[in-house]
């Protein structure tokens, strides 16, 4: 969310300090001097967050969030929701999310962090950390820092191999965009989804092309076209996807293609020669 000349919500418009700097100062203070939070305070913060999400009044929602942070300053879910509605310039988003990642990790504690590696989504205590990582990865990807996004997604799968948040496709396509074919191979092997997933099927076409194996690339293309016929026109640029992502999709549908088109086209657009090759492949 970009900030305009008069957009400071929910901060004091008379302040000379940029809203992003206010948030960074607050988060650094929380990180450097963490407050011990009682179970009662943690529960109250959770209840207030629920109230903030339920109300349609934006100012009332902010009031609930601020009260929640009074009870639990290190509740990163509250901070994430606050960040989502606050008018804070894009240049501040990644530094803020990086601080939230540190706060979330600090709150878990290194012992619990190490003991539960592999099934982080299974614990209430560790889910906020996973949500912060996902937000950080998404923002890095949006701002063009694919390497940092890739590291976040790799960490997420290391902490939760079941991938409840569904980031494996984004990781796979970022690997291909960066030319990391060996890492892509590991993801293809770990998650056997070519032929059943639009992202994996069309990612395999690009991978085979990059390996300069025309025969396997053509075979992969046949599989991808059978799995989802809609993605091809998006990759070629002959059809533009809608601005809004679908809330749900059926396998093989146009909505499935739209759900992963951003990461897919970023990967393919790194290789104009691959798109040229695809345009030459006649449909049979």
Q: What fraction strand?
A: under 5%
Summed over residues and divided by their number, the pLDDT gives a mean of 92
What structural class is derived from the secondary structure elements? mainly alpha
The beta-strand count equals: 0
C-alpha end-to-end distance: 44 Å
- What CATH calls the topology of the largest domain is Serine Threonine Protein Phosphatase 5, Tetratricopeptide repeat
State the name of the first-level CATH class of the largest domain: Mainly Alpha
Largest sheet, in brief, is: none
What CATH architecture of the largest domain would you give? Alpha Horseshoe
Keywords:
single chain; 284 residues; 2 domains; mainly alpha
How would you describe this structure to a colleague?
- The protein is an all-alpha fold and 284 residues long.
- The protein has 2 domains: 1-166, Serine Threonine Protein Phosphatase 5, Tetratricopeptide repeat, CATH 1.25.40; 184-284, no CATH class.
- Helices cover 65% and strands 0% of the residues.
- It is built from 16 helices and no strands.
- The protein has helices at 19-32, 39-54, 58-71, 76-85, 90-108, 110-115, 127-142, 146-159, 168-177, 181-190, 198-210, 214-227, 231-236, 254-259, 261-269, 272-280.
- Helix 7 runs antiparallel to helix 8, helix 8 runs antiparallel to helix 9 (168-177) and helix 9 (168-177) packs parallel to helix 15 (261-269).
- The longest helix is centred in the middle third of the chain and has 19 residues, at 90-108.
- The chain starts with 18 loop residues before the first helix and ends with a helix.
- Residues 1-9 have low confidence and may be disordered.
């Amino acid at each position: 969310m970009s900030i305009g000349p008069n957009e400071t919500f929910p901060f004091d418009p008379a302040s000379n300090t940029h809203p992003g700097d206010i948030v960074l100062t607050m988060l650094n203070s929380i990180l450097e001097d963490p407050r011990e939070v009682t179970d009662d305070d943690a529960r109250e913060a959770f209840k207030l967050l629920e109230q903030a999400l339920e109300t349609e009044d934006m100012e009332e929602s902010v009031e609930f969030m601020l009260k929640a942070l009074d009870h639990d300053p290190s509740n990163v879910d509250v901070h994430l929701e606050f960040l989502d509605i606050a008018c804070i310039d894009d240049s501040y988003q990644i530094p803020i999310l990086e601080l939230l990642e540190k706060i979330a990790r600090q709150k878990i504690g290194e012992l619990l962090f190490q003991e539960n590696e592999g099934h982080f989504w299974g614990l209430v205590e560790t889910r906020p950390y996973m949500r912060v990582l996902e937000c950080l990865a998404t923002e890095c990807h949006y701002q063009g820092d694919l390497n940092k996004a890739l590291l976040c997604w790799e960490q997420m799968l290391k902490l939760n191999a079941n991938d409840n948040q569904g980031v494996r496709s984004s990781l796979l396509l970022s690997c291909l965009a960066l030319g990391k074919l060996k890492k892509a191979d590991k993801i293809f092997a770990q998650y056997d989804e070519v032929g059943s997933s639009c992202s994996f099927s069309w990612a395999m076409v690009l991978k085979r092309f990059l390996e300069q194996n025309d025969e396997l690339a053509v075979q992969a293309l046949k599989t991808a076209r059978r799995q989802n016929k809609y993605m091809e026109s998006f990759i070629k640029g002959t059809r533009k996807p809608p601005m809004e992502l679908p809330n749900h999709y059926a396998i093989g549908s146009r909505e499935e293609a739209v759900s992963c088109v951003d990461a897919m086209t970023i990967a393919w657009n790194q290789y104009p020669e691959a798109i040229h090759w695809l345009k030459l492949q006649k449909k049979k």
